[in-house]
Amino acid sequence: MRVLFGMILGVALTVGAAFVSDTWSGGSDATSATSGSAESVSADHRNMVNWDVVAENVRIVSRRAREAWSTLSHKVTG
Question: How far apart are the C-alpha atoms of 26 and 34, rounded to whole Å?
Fold first, then answer.
């Protein structure tokens, strides 16, 4: 039980750290991208995770889980 809790806690901490890192670093500014210097281009921050893709995948997984649960409950109740 402790191993399972540790694995869940580790995943939650990893995802949380990536989210905080992406949120608190302001991302790339339009002004620094248009300044044209090579130094500003290399200093642009790239997000660790594409959160739009993550949100879409979570939505798909939850929808499939709901459909599977619905199908299973209809088979059980008969």
Answer: 16
What digits encode the pLDDT tens for the residues 64-73?
A: 999 999 999 9
What type of residue is 57?
N
Q: In this model, does residue 20 exceed pLDDT 70?
A: yes
> What average pLDDT score do residues 31-60 get?
66
Rounded-to-integer distance, Cα 25 and Cα 61, Å: 29
d(CA 25, CA 1): 36
Nearest-Å Rg of the Cα atoms of the chain is: 20
Question: Where along the chain do its domains lie?
Answer: 50-78
Q: Do the Cβ atoms of 46 and 21 come closer than 8 Å? A: no
Count Cβ atoms below 10 Å from residue 47 Cβ, excluding itself: 13
